[in-house]
Amino acid sequence: MQPALFALCALCFSAGIAGGWYLSIRIRNIPEPGPSTPDQIPMLRIGPSRVSGRGVLATRPIDKGETLERCPVLEVHEGDVGGELLNYVFYGNDPSKRLVAMGSGMLFNHSSTPNVGYWLEESKLGPELVLYTLRRVEKGEELFYDYGREWWESRQLQQKN
């Protein structure tokens, strides 16, 4: 091996060792995240429901009118929705379309005395369901919205409380 090539290889090897050593020191000195503030704590969690399968539960007290989530939605033609998915779609402004909510929007169960309301809003990125509380909700309480009369009638079911 030529002396110049050997020196170049030794220099590259030494630079790699020095760079690795420097990065390992920098990584070890990254501070640990501090305790979360209330606005950083997720307010919702998915867990076992007291009424049916999964549900959405409050992880902290939530005031009346507080926005719970902005769920992006996909607008699909009603003919493209079938099977079990029928139980998880929303009705929008167009009677021939259904809304498929992303996030936890699909997992709220029904109550005829709901503690959650929602509205459809157009954003720069597309339609969103904005979910908000209708009253104060306590930590651990399950969140519900009213599926509406049309949901029950379209399935020929009697509305549950």
UniProtKB/TrEMBL annotation:
Residues 42-148 form the SET domain. InterPro entries: SET_dom, SET_dom_sf. This is SET domain-containing protein. It comes from Prosthecochloris vibrioformis. The lineage of its organism: Bacteria, Pseudomonadati, Chlorobiota, Chlorobiia, Chlorobiales.
